[in-house]
Design brief:
Rossmann fold; six-stranded mixed β-sheet; homodimer; 14 helices; 373 residues; 21% strand; Dihydrodipicolinate Reductase, domain 2
Chain lengths: 373, 373
């Protein structure tokens, strides 16, 4: 059993659900030989708290809910300094047991402050897991290199499809496969609005509905102008296609009230209007685009209703493989963090199934002529 | 770099494509620190050959293509004995570097002889990978227990969706998630026939087309009577739902020429007729069924054309997650074996990304009061 010490940077709905999910999944974590202790919490407006022996995270959730500060100090310090201080205060970082859990509110035009938090975590000897798309959309290769140098993990399964695995899928289950490109529907708000407009509901009304449900951002432009989808497209392209893109490099056309009539007409003709994200390697360079596309009815993406998302991977060995997310919500996003935590646990604890055994002896090099493929 | 020694039991199209794929993917395997050498080949009608220093598998493919025997011996010996002999002849089994690759022709009503080959491999200290659904459909728990006792791996990614990951997906990327049930379209032949019948093509003509393409079995009843789908359903239920089913326990209704009219009528009404495989835990017991179902047009399974397959997992934490296979063929099936080989390689070589490092020290048990979730 390894006890991981967690520093929660950002303590909003996602981080709070992550904390309660950790408690609910304690038995599942124990089966993975993982225990956890929250040793630091940094909030945007309610201060920060840390304790080497562990914080009572449930009590902190209650304090924040009552509008109370969680730390004694009045001064606000940068979260990056807080991370460094917590890492310095105990042995967990050196022992590969410290994990920064990054869930701050994102400036999607810059990827900050999440990128700085990831850097600070890795520089302090912590693994970093994040539900933010910013770091991987704006700075994937730099952060992956920093993680490699630090010999720590930087994981972000929740950045694109919440808890539905897409990065893990490619890394863990498609070895030796080359991803040639992808297309998908990756923004729930715009898909919901387009589906509603097909049935004659006005754009503004559908958008308000999504905001009331807490799914659309209060700044609706991030969704409807395609910024969220462009950030996810850049993230996917950077990791899966080894691209060097930022969201600004993604050709981007959003949706608007003017698509109401085309959406209805497409539906009447047995076709569907979808905001499609796509990227591919063409003539040695990566092209990436987010734009409304009219799809034939038998296209997998055409069938995605309401908040459903999907990504179709175009591969060399397997042809097309698709992953479809049919439910979304806070638990799914928090689960993405949990799955990243377990990925780190499996790394640190070693492979399951073959526990406690030494690795195979290396095959001896032989002088006799071998037939080795 | 670990050199794995392979014993190919069954040397038909799948095994031969696996051999050429190993050669094509030599660089990808090297990145995984895996090299391979074929040390044994057992065929059904062309004898068997083995050599501790390695066989020239490409030359054996040519011999079989010319109708020649590959072994000197005239006597036919059971493959299980052949496996034991090859394992005894060198150090690979003891060093966890021997892998039996099982691709024999399956008796789908019994799961044999594949089950005996898996047992023999594990008993000889080999890992076993198979593209056959028989072992996991008829004897999953017994074979998994044998693998655990032997401290070797028994993997079968190709049993249900060819190379598209479903077992790996759940094992590697959905930790802590409980699968509550699934439904899917898992048989290409019946899906192709139903799609053709919607457009007025006669049942027998569509079936002949699939047989001519080498996709349908020459004994068509395995496909059209639902046996293949029932075996895959039992396999999925045994592994994902911890069921104890054989294909005989799966309620089974196949397809026939009489479904031509209903298929056309459903299509005209905006609905689709599909052979749906499903299983779920209900009131503490597992129910499993394969039967034609009329699906609404917006059902993910309704949109599967021709040979496409899909499985929708119903989960506790993530809601519904679907995986769609949009291309199928020999390379996909051979890739499933390759991915199983790499899974074993990752186990034996230890985690990537954190190579050569000792595992974290165990967290000390402390007398002081800790807050550990």
């Amino acid at each position: 059993m390894t006890t991981f010490e967690l520093v929660l940077v950002g303590f909003g709905h996602v981080a709070q659900r992550f904390v309660t999910l950790l408690e609910e999944q304690r038995a599942a974590l124990a089966r993975e030989r993982i225990a956890v202790r929250v040793v630091g919490v940094a909030t945007r407006r309610h201060g920060a708290a840390s304790a080497v022996r562990g914080l009572d995270a449930a009590a902190l959730i209650n304090r924040v809910a009552r509008g109370e500060r969680i730390g004694r100090s009045r001064e606000e310090r940068p979260a990056a300094d807080f991370i460094a201080d917590v890492a310095a205060a105990n042995d967990a970082a050196r022992e590969r047991r410290l994990i920064v859990v990054e869930t701050t509110t994102l400036d999607i035009t810059r990827g900050q402050p999440a990128i700085e938090h990831v850097r600070a975590g890795l520089a302090s000897g912590a693994h970093v897991i994040t539900a933010n798309k910013g770091p991987v959309a704006f700075a994937y290769h730099a952060l992956a290199a920093a993680a490699s140098r630090a010999d720590r993990r930087f994981l972000f399964e929740g950045a694109v499809m919440d808890g539905v695995p897409i990065f893990n899928l490619v890394r863990e289950t498609l070895p030796a496969v080359t991803i040639l490109g992808f297309r998908g529907v990756v923004n729930s708000t715009t898909n919901f609005i387009l589906t509603a407009m097909e049935q004659g509901q006005p754009f503004a009304e559908a958008l308000s509905e999504m905001q009331a449900m807490g799914i659309a951002e209060s700044d609706a432009s991030l969704d409807v102008d395609g910024w969220d989808a462009a950030a996810k497209t850049a993230a996917l392209a950077n990791v899966l296609l080894d691209a060097r893109l930022t969201p600004r490099d993604v050709e981007r056309v959003g949706i608007s009230a003017e698509l109401g009539r085309p959406a209805m007409e497409a539906r009447a003709a047995g076709r569907r209007l979808k905001l499609v994200a796509r990227a591919a390697r063409e003539d040695g360079r990566i092209t990436a685009r987010v734009a409304p596309e009219e799809l034939p009815d038998d296209d997998l993406l055409a069938g995605l209703e309401g908040q459903q998302n999907a990504i179709i991977l175009h591969t060399d060995l397997l042809g097309e493989v698709a992953v479809v997310q049919r439910g979304a919500g806070l638990t799914q996003t928090a689960y993405a963090l949990l799955s990243d935590l377990i990925t780190i646990g499996r790394d640190v604890n070693g492979p399951r199934g073959l526990r406690g055994r030494p690795p195979a002896r290396r095959a001896r090099s032989r002088a006799r002529p071998d037939r080795t493929l």
